[in-house]
Amino acid sequence: MVAKKLLPRYYSSINIVLKQSKGIVLSYVKYSESSIIARIYTRDFGLQSYMAKGVRSRKSKSKIALFEPLSQVEIVTYHNENKTIHTLKEIRSHYSYQSIPFDEIKRSILFFLDEILINTIKEESSNESLFDWLAHSLTWFDLSEESALNFHLAFMIQLSRFLGFYPKKSSMANHRFFDLENGVFVNFIPKTANYLNEELTFHFNKLYENTFEEAAKLSLTSSQRRDLINALVNYYKIHFPGFKDLKSVDVLKAILS
Question: In the chain, where are the structural domains located?
Fold first, then answer.
């Protein structure tokens, strides 16, 4: 437990209540010489901004490590319903990554996925299913001894289910092409220019149908992997308004080549 029977405690005069939740850190910015403002996706309250005081001071060097991209934490906060930035009272690790900090490929993929989530998670309300899936997926990725090279591809496809544009299949037996604009597998070349050819559709379909464990075993060339990254980023741009260009994508392609 993060807190010892602290909940609920109300501060009625200033509309503050002490709350706790699991969270996944997305990003932070420096606020003062020793403080930061962190964006944390929480299981109970969705995406929130939190002031973390003193975490950059000399006495709290270990604390700043808790705000690394996609760190899984437990927090206790002073939640003020009249403000958009709340104050962290306590933060501690919920799950410490075992392999990611020491694996260049996994670390690069994690930064890429963090940028994807920063672009797509906007909800300031609870979505326990999405949070639990994220926590499970990231923990599996960290602990898995399978190849990491395809994880981000399967992750992006599965994430689209929660974002509302998961690829669709018709009742047709064969699915030769994937129409990116309409998000559907088809047997004919779409009229739009945004589609995957038969080769890429075959691999995309395998990623679509398989679990992370199965996707890790798929044999893809560096070129195919790059083309699938480009296709999925394009797919997100088409279906998620305001999705920005990703700074980490070129670095990831270079490392995976």
Answer: 10-95, 100-256
